[in-house]
Amino acid sequence: MRPILFVDRDGTLIAEPPDHQIDSYEKLRFVDGVVPALLRLRDAGYQFVMVSNQDGLGTEAYPRESFEGPHALMMQLFESQGIVFREVLIDTSFPDDNALTRKPGIGLVLHYLKDRSVDWTRSAMVGDRPTDNAFARNLGIRAFQLRNGEFGGDWDWAGIAHALADAPRTAKISRNTRETRIEVEVDLDRAAEPRVSTGIGFFDHMLEQLGKHGGFALTLSCEGDLHIDEHHTVEDCALALGQALREALGDKRGIGRYGFDPSEGSGPVAGNGGGHGFTLPMDESLASVALDFSGRPYLVFEGTFRSERIGGLSAQMVPHFFRSLCETAGINLNLRVDGDNDHHQVEACFKAFARALRQAIRREGNELPSTKGLL
Length: 375
Hints:
Layout: E1 4-7, H1 34-43, E2 47-53, H2 64-80, E3 85-91, E4 124-127, H3 130-139, E5 142-145, H4 157-165, E6 170-176, E7 180-187, E8 195-197, H5 201-214, E9 217-224, H6 231-249, E10 258-259, H7 262-265, E11 278-282, E12 285-292, E13 298-302, E14 309-310, E15 313-314, H8 317-329, E16 332-338, H9 342-361
Parallel strand pairs: 1-2, 1-4, 2-3, 4-5, 8-9, 13-16
Antiparallel strand pairs: 6-7, 7-9, 10-12, 11-12, 12-16, 14-15
GO molecular function, one term: histidinol-phosphatase activity
EC number: 3.1.3.15, 4.2.1.19
Pathway: Amino-acid biosynthesis; L-histidine biosynthesis; L-histidine from 5-phospho-alpha-D-ribose 1-diphosphate: step 8/9; Amino-acid biosynthesis; L-histidine biosynthesis; L-histidine from 5-phospho-alpha-D-ribose 1-diphosphate: step 6/9
């Protein structure tokens, strides 16, 4: 999914003259900072759609010929800098016409509401008038009003690019079923002490490892049917956490995608026939993890626990936790562990996974790490 930046034209991309008509080449002047800001947003994955009210365009008072020359030059200059608009939508009605296609009406963009490839949570509108803000509200997206002397506004283009391109990757998930009530919050760009409460002390300790060694802020609370057993609590916590990770990553543009750290942690895991990945020791135990945010969930788990329970957690729930997490996060995970102490083995699994996760979610640029164009 990719976000769309809906953009007004006059007063937003190009300066608006006192007579509100850019009908000659002499009147064409770009708004300060618009080109570098759009380039930055393009590299952050945004597509651009121009939406403009041009009162009475095509009438005798505003001939189309006067409009098309400066407009074509503007588009050519944008394209010469690598800025391409997915679509240019222009309404030519007058305010008194009350046309549904005139901003703040959204008639011109209704077809985008049917496009499932649009990331509406990150999409936004940039304009210079209150009607642009109202258009954004009608569309259910964030609004940015540029500063100018006539209509006010609080933003410049550099600030808009920063707010959208550098936005923290956060998600908040509520999962309520007959068995569990779960709240999860993650912020992938902020390190903080994890706050976890599930009613299972050992499981809390393991989830805390994910936030601490994964390098992201994690808050998770669960009220589950522990009077039956811990199955629903562990499974649903994994599903909710995986969903939060997936939503926080958005279209995954710029992430490392893979977690394996060959320079620091590669090597065979003792006793499991080899394998390479992020290798982490926990006393006598050794865990190796390699993961891929491919969007195609898959788990390979190799390890044997000697005890039926570790703390208040059933040993069989350890691979089940990672399987459930992979399902909703869209992770391909290979995890191998060997050792004598089950507590050490499980903790090594969670810590190694967290360190590989840290590498995979790290921002490394703006490119989408896939030749498919989608993850």
